[in-house]
Amino acid sequence: VVEAVKPAVVSIVVGTVSYNIFLQPVPEEKAASGVIIDDRGYIVTNNHVVEGAESITVTLPDGRTFDATLVGRDPLTDLAVIKIDGDNLPTATFGSSSELRVGQWVVAIGNALALPGGPTVTVGVVSALGRTIREESGVTLYDVIQTDAAINPGNSGGPLVNLEGEVVGINTAKVTAVEVSGVGFAVSADTARPVVAELIEKGYVSRPYLGVSLVTVTPAIARSYDLATEEGAMIYQVVAGTPADIAGLRAKDVIIALDGDKVTTADDVVLAIRAHEIGDRIEITYLRGNKEITTSATLVERPRS
Fold this sequence. Notes:
Elements: H1 2-5, E1 9-19, E2 25-36, E3 42-45, H2 47-50, E4 55-59, E5 65-67, E6 69-74, E7 79-83, E8 105-110, E9 120-134, E10 140-147, E11 159-161, E12 167-174, E13 184-188, H3 189-202, E14 208-209, E15 212-216, H4 219-224, E16 233-238, H5 243-246, E17 254-258, E18 261-262, H6 266-274, E19 281-288, E20 291-298, E21 300-301
């Protein structure tokens, strides 16, 4: 398994520039990992790895070094694609994360701690599937794989591999609390595959957009805002001119169903909208005070900013 995938796992060094208190530029470097998924030189890594990159250098396990260009990045899945130009490039293949089971053995491969000598390999099991986690950046990641395979600094962007040698996830985050050990996360292959394809095709990911900011209703929120329900997704902001605004949705409305399917959390709304296409019309049932109202909205493309 390791010998089949390891040649395609690359070390990435990203050059960035920060500014000191005198507003003088200070060059910095950070090390991470990536995996070549196409013999044309396309490499998958994390968005947070390449964000703000002034330069990107890729080193293969065989010692070859390349300057890389940024193809595209997607903050909402913490994925990015970079490209190198080279011959006879080793590649890895995406498998299906939907076939994973809790307790199944997996292998994490990456440039842990930026140590010389090639990628580091750690072994563990799938601890949980379908996790929702919030990264330090504030971005919420969905359908995340949790593993106890050791994921250390520099592993970001490296592959999580099953025993068939298929990439089933892209390592993206590690819980670093002192009392927590053996908790790593990877974006699932089923999430990554279409995102990567779209990034290669056009450099960004198009998504449907309603135009609301939401919070999950809890008993405490229901009391604070005098809501008629203790579950659902409360709107706390409606962006002017968006489908939500046009449909008449307002702050403090509580979405309780989409297309007839019950909504109990804000995540339910996010995932339901992501499952649609741009241009789809959705039916929204919501509470305004004690009154239940149903309206519809046509989803538009999410602003790239």
